[in-house]
Model the fold of this input.
Amino acid sequence: MVPSEENQLVPKEDMFWSCRQSIFAEMKKKFSQVESAAEEPRVLCIIQDTTNSKTVNERVTLNLPASTPLKRLFEDVASKVGYVNGTFDLMWGNGDNVIDTQTPIDQNSDKTILDAGFEPGKKNFLHLTDRDGEQPHLVPEESSATDDNAQDRFIGPLPREGSVGCGNDYVNQSYSYSSVLSKSETAPGCSFSACAQEVHPPLPGSPPASGDSCGREAQLCLAGYVGLVNQAMTCYLNSLLQTLFMTPEFRNALYKWEFEESEEDPVTSIPYQLQRLFVLLQTSRKRAIETTDVTRSFGWDSSEAWQQHDVQELCRVMFDALEQKWKQTEQADLINQLYQGKLKDYVRCLECGYEGWRIDTYLDIPLVIRPYGSSQAFASVEEALHAFIQPEILDGPNQYFCERCKKKCDARKGLRFLHFPYLLTLQLKRFDFDYTTMHRIKLNDRMTFPEELDMSVFIDVEDESPQTESCTDSGAENEGSCHSDQMSNDFSNDDGVDEGICLESNSAAERLSKAGSEKSSLLYELFSVMVHSGSAAGGHYYACIKSFSDDQWYSFNDQHVSKITQEDIKKTYGGSSGSRGYYSSAFASSTNAYMLIYRLKDPTRNAKFLEANEYPEHIKQLVQKERELEEQEKRQREIERNTCKIKLFCMHPTKQIMMENKLEVHKDRTLKEAVEIAYKLMDLEEAVPLDCCRLVKYDEFHDYLERSYEGEEDTPMGLLLGGVKSTYMFDLLLETRRPDQIFQCYKPGEVMVKVHVVDLKTESVAPPISVRAYLNQTVLEFKHLISKATNLPAETMRVVLERCYNDLRLLNVSSKTLKAEGFFRSNKVFIESSESLDRHVAYTDSHLWKLLDRHANTIRLYVSLPEQSPGPQFRRTVYQKSSGDTGNLDEACERIKGPVGNMKSVEAILEESTEKLKSLSLQQQQEGDNGDSSKSTEASDFENIESPLNEIDSSASAENRELENQIQISDPENLQSEERSDSDVNNDRSTSSVDSDILSSSHSSDTLCNVDNAPLPLANGLDSHSITSSRRSKANQGKKETWDTAEEDSGTDSEYDESGKSRGEAQYMYFKAEPYAADEGSGEGQKWLMVHVDKRITLSAFKQQLEPFVGVPSSHFKVFRVYASNQEFESVRLNETLSSFSDDNKITIRLGRALKKGEYRVKVYQLLVNEPEPCKFLLDAVFAKGMTVRQSKEELLPQLREQCGLDLTIDRFRLRKKTWKNPGTVFLDYHIYEEDINISSNWEVFLEILDGAEKMKSMSQLAVLSRRWRPSEMKLDSFQEVVLESSSVEELKEKLSEVSGIPVENIEFAKGRGTFPCDISILEIHQDLDWNPKVSTLNVWPLYICDDGAVIFYRDKTEELMELTDEQRNELMKKESSRLQKTGHRVTYSPRKEKALKIYLDGAPNKDLTQD
Done:
């Protein structure tokens, strides 16, 4: 047969060349594609995965051709990150080209990425997000290149929503994104896709897909397990709930229980809320489920979420609550059937063999980690179990009284396990208490536990002794004294014979046969490990649980659920490296197992999770109900996602106040519908018709109307606002009009101008009129525009633009555009169109400029006057300065309107009051000679000063008065920096203690405050210009060491210049005051002034203007600025302006002598070194710059006698530095303030009463406070001061030897810690302090004693420490704790007070506090 052509054989050479040509053709095609692609613009896409906390800070980069379709973009992203395409959304991020950050990019669109808004050559930021609240589905494991067995895994408290084992993937620059995600088996989401069904094992109890609703619902479980949200500190609750959920017997029994709504409120029903939670854990599509409904059924409020409790304690309390709720139901004995075991607590006489015993039940077995006093921990759970049942011998004083022997005998006491529960719970007692350090500690020792535990070796075989007697009550005299404290639950006594242990009258053979049968079937498998990570002070719980469906271990860490291996379980054994003592792990933080739960391996009893078709009818209904609720939440989220939320403003048409609210409108609603919503939201139904309202685009920051929306009433709001966004760069204004008006059209590009009309005759500025202009308009065109709006002539119009604060520009170039003049979105202009001669004056000299300048700088203040002030009638009295001009006074008097026929002249009143004040104080007469003779008065004499207006008609008192006094602005070069030296006001007294007598001689230091700053003669022969140096710098031969800090010349300033003349003449400052009726609650009978004042006025001039209203000279009252929360601070810098004040600030005036330049208000505290409270406030005093310490002590003597009852002599007390509560440097009598001692406002100083003569004479001496510790008596002696001539340790020991009688070689000392008096518990002082440091001087590490006031503890090293019994130690501990807490000092161990864990069966805590 002849073969056809097709079947003919081709020579090898021809085949080779043919293949080569086809390869070249293919390569050429590829190269051409590459060349064309190289010419096409590329789009750089940067994708951030926001669905996972581990990857949220990382970026995935794609560089795609601009012609790439959006579908291909999603495919590439899915391939890159390892997600199933279609299970995630992409949204615009926060890059430069943001379009819409809320609306997902349409995956099904045929657009290219260029048409969709992506920009070539720029970074296009995208966010990968959940779709419809479901986490993206991972690609199948088979398609992942990573070997799951080779992955490095991590066991521990994992980040919420993070991925196990992916911590190091991002370190490598060539990481595979899909490998990162494939390591996380977290599966909060769900899917019906076949792919998802293949990837994840079904949840226990999930049947294959079927047509019924329950089958479809069960398919939701195919994606994996769902986490639980940690409310705050509820990780312990989450761990237990997940363990119960993964226990088939418990979950099935809970599902079989049916809730009767007619009998109980579902909110307070604990079983029902657990049932709902389990259904949600099994069917929800959410990433994690909230537990708030469960905790609410416990009767807990939100504060309970912030209380961390022990998971074992919660287990016991919750089981008790369930038993109470399940009474008289099929589940009444469920907890006992599953978790309860039985043991025998016995005592056997070693002489006669008589045994007394009782049967106890338990829900868990507490296993000791390390025996008390031992440094060796048990290596395994098996060892701990053997130790648990190891008996102890009662002998000596602990002998047992045998009822058969009728005497005390040696006995054996112990526990025997009689019955183990189906679910065996072991608690590893890792938390202990150290009675030496009084610390609660955590034991992190290694303790292994097997995956399968054989408990048959621990079961009791009936004792062969014929003397054994059964008794239902304990025969032990010390019942419960041994081992019973190890049990974690409240034991119950059985009144009858235990039926579960076969103690009936059966033969011994039968009993042994049954016992042997039980022993052979006691093999348990581990399925839950509750892990604690942290220390005794706090930590985190999570659970490692094995699924009985696939035998796979999972880590349930709050919201995060992930696969783990047996190796991860072994990491929870605990243990740490290095040798250590018993309590060395007191504060070590580690991760280790805390509770273990085993299930008995018994095929006849081991249950599987209920299949969906096996669910009771009420569970099927509950599943359907929860699904509908979740669908409703999903729809609500969808609505929220499509809702525009934007700020809405509206000027109320009648109230004339700007209202603010938030407008929430769906993006598909039209503008007309949005206006209706805003109209109702602003509650304008009774104020204006709906057709008189409209929404306009508004910029609230610049108060600028950007545009109106004419003809767009039917346009969707999403289109008008530019889409749904989290924040908008603009706002909306609901604009209103009167029915006879029409709305103005606002076009984009226009600017808003607020026009104020100025009237020079009345010196008033009218409220603004809004005008819209264009930036390209000229000034002339702008004037004509304003002329139409104001009906003022444009020819004579002057326009002044206020560009910013105090920048008033006259627009005098008509051809300039508004843009060139500095107009912006929102502008303020002032216009004046009179034909006065002021138009021809230079602008800066014109009346218009002065009026606008005053208007720009005037603020409104509310001034509270003291009760002693003469009141508003007296406000017209003007004090005449000796250097002033009486013409101003006459002019002021002429301005007073009303009947003045019977009124005394102001001069007469001033002369009369001045004479009264002069006669009271020689010092005030001297001040009067220097130009301030009329500035003295006394609070008690105010009422005797006759007011010049007592007979004026009341209409005159209502007259407002303006004072325009000439006040000179001090030279800027002489102005000090704006540092507010405000002193705190500790009380609400109208007059402080130091100002109680304002007419007394201010103090001798007044003579030191020379305004000419000349050298002043002082008592010690030094002058006030001595070289400033610290005490220690003199003592250490010129080594400068700053021991105090203060601002140079931080005192107050004089109201007068250096020549003593009142400042004036440079500039007119505006001041206007009138009575003001304050709001209720501002103080009954309190007088207020509303003051309009130029804020460029100095505090000194402001006080002078207030003199007529206060009724006393400015030197005899103080100004306090009132801040938030009614805090008051004194303003003392007289030549500072009021520029820091703003409109509506409040000021309080208090009577009392104000500080002068160089003076400081000082708080004096008494130092009581041996009192429980060593710091006691005495009084406020005034110290002056240049004053010596001795002079200040002289001034303190009368004040101490009068105010504090301390009758001292000048040599019986000292002053010393105070830092917080610590005493510091001793001030010597010849020290000078501001030269040797830095002083500042609000300064504090200690006053210390001396027992004898002052020992501190020199700058080189050092005073320390010593205190002897007597270990044999367990007590501390009182403080004694020791004065050293040097910083030598040897000298310190010698001085301590002198005061104590201890030989020098036996003295050991240590420096106190913390704040004076460095309190420390006498239980800790002997070992906690750093005794006998190896140093030769005190001013080096670790002592650093360089200043007076250090605390030194010392002891005799030959003195033995008293040995304490446990009772003595506990009693001493209580006393010390009480003492340290009363003194307010730190207690070394002060753990957070734990709140008892309770579950309230009625759904609410008992309000009766006596029941706690």
Notes: The first strand starts at residue 42 and ends at 49. The CA atoms of residues 92 and 99 lie 7 Å apart. The chain has a mean pLDDT of 74. The chain has 30 helices and 52 strands.
